[in-house]
């Protein structure tokens, strides 16, 4: 299988799960997943991330109170909290680059986890201040991503994907004439 088809296969078959088994993730596997993040692209290769890996059950329980999908955090054997250094690059649009940089690193972990038979759940709904307080993250350091990770508690049906015609336009926004705005 070529490298391109392997990545496509991982992308197509990775699981965003809602429940994890209680099986512990070996440290060497977690380190491999985090290594994927370290090599993710970032603006000016600044690598503005710092990841806090939370395996302690009590700490995950405390964090779950600050997450809108709290049960998910409690069942995951590990939670990776993606934080950004304050000194982010500012893109030509005037926007800071760290949200995109952390998203790229998180997606690299999602694919790395899938490659190691792990499932993930990328969590976007959380109270940043509460997480900062539980983990001792300084007030000026943004908490950008949460990634629950573990072995799935069974597999679920993969989500359907929108068609290429609805997802991809060539040369101009509505080049396919689909009427999708």
List keywords for this structure.
181 residues, alpha+beta, NADH Oxidase, four-stranded antiparallel beta sheet, 7 helices, 37% helix, 14% strand, globular, disordered C terminus
Assign the CATH superfamily: NADH Oxidase
Proportion in β-strands: 5-15%
Architecture in CATH?
Answer: 3-Layer(aba) Sandwich
**What is the overall silhouette?**
globular
Order of helices and strands: HHEHHEHEHEH
The order of strands across the largest sheet is 1-2-4-3
| Annotated CATH topology | NADH Oxidase
Helix segment count?
A: 7
Structural class: alpha+beta
Number of structurally distinct domains:
1
User: Could you tell me the number of beta strands?
Assistant: 4
Which blocks of ≥5 consecutive residues have pLDDT under 50?
177-181
Kindly provide the radius of gyration, computed on alpha-carbon positions and rounded to a whole number of angstroms: 18 Å
Folded structure, characterized:
The structure is a single chain. With 181 residues, the protein is of the alpha+beta class. The protein has a single domain, classed as NADH Oxidase, CATH 3.40.109.10. The chain is 37% helix and 14% strand. Strands 1-2-4-3 form a 4-stranded antiparallel sheet, with helices on both faces. The radius of gyration is 18 Å and the shape is globular. The N and C termini lie far apart (37 Å). The C terminus is likely disordered.
């Amino acid at each position: 299988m070529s490298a391109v088809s392997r990545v496509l296969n991982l992308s197509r078959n990775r699981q965003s799960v809602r429940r994890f088994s209680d099986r512990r993730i070996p440290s060497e596997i977690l380190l491999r997943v985090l290594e994927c993040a370290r090599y993710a692209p970032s603006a000016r290769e600044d690598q503005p991330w710092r990841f806090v890996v939370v395996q302690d059950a009590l700490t995950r329980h405390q964090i779950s109170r600050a997450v809108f999908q709290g049960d998910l955090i409690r069942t995951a054997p590990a939670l990776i909290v993606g934080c950004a250094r304050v000194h982010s690059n500012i893109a030509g649009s005037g926007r800071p680059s760290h949200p995109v940089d952390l998203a790229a690193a998180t997606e690299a972990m999602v694919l790395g986890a899938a490659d190691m038979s792990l499932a993930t759940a990328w969590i976007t709904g959380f109270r940043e201040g509460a997480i900062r307080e539980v983990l001792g993250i300084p007030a000026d350091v943004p908490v950008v991503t949460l990634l629950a990770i573990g072995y799935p508690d069974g597999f679920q049906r993969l989500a359907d994907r929108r068609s290429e015609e609805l997802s991809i336009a060539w040369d101009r926004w509505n080049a396919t004439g689909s009427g999708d705005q």
